[in-house]
Design a protein that fits this description.
The chain has about 220 residues and is mainly α. About 80% of the residues lie in helices and about 0% in strands.
């Protein structure tokens, strides 16, 4: 009889954690979209300023307009064409934006496939490969094995330009696995890190408070 009550209690805790994940997981995609947008703007502007690959710059700008006009499918196709045919400076960036547009259009499988391809392409700059790996993990957060997600996210969370977002995702992966103590530890590390962006610290603190309130 005790075992039955324990199983019910564990099931209730898992259900609560999934509710928290669904509530707070949306924050992560907003962070990632902003990061990709920032990288896109920076790289696109640099290329334009140097007057390199003017045709690709124009194509990239046209695809961005489609994205801003809420036409994700058309934007994805335009970005993917540039990723396949553009100059080296734009391929990785356009590939990331294509994957993001497919995700926005609801085509998760295509988005994940593109992210995975970029993450495994040694010709792509390291920071883009890492971002692609991070976004692939995010896209699969609801269905992938939490242990697999942790293996992918832990190296990204240890160091690099995306470490703060990776640590937030890692905390959510730990939470999804049902490891409340591990999730609280991971969230506390984010919330208490003075080097982390204020938004990351605030989200971690809020989710940590919600977890503790649900005990």
């Amino acid at each position: 009889m005790t075992d039955i009550f324990q199983e019910v209690d564990e099931e209730i805790r898992r259900d609560r954690m999934m509710v928290l994940w669904r509530r707070y997981g949306a924050y992560i995609v907003a962070i990632a979209v902003l990061l990709i947008g920032a990288v896109a703007a920076y790289e696109g502007w640099q290329a334009w300023q140097r007057r390199q690959a003017a045709a690709d710059a124009a194509s990239f700008a046209a695809a961005e307009r489609l994205a801003r006009d809420s036409k994700p499918a058309e934007a994805a196709a335009a970005f993917q064409k540039l990723a396949a045919e553009g100059t080296v400076g734009y391929r990785a960036l356009a590939g990331l934006r294509a994957a993001g547009s497919y995700a926005e259009a609801g085509d998760q499988a295509q988005a994940v496939a593109l992210y995975e391809r970029l993450a495994g392409d040694s010709s792509v700059p390291a920071r883009y490969r890492e971002l692609a790996s991070l976004m692939a993990a995010y896209q699969r957060m609801d269905e992938a094995d939490p242990a697999e997600l942790r293996r992918r996210l832990e190296p990204l969370a240890a160091d690099g330009p995306w470490r703060h977002v990776a640590r937030e995702l890692l905390a959510l992966a730990v939470l999804r696995s049902g490891d409340r103590a591990g999730a609280e530890k991971a969230l506390t590390e984010v919330a208490d890190d003075p080097a982390a962006p204020a938004g990351s610290r605030a989200r971690a603190a809020e989710l940590l408070a919600a977890l503790k309130a649900g005990q």
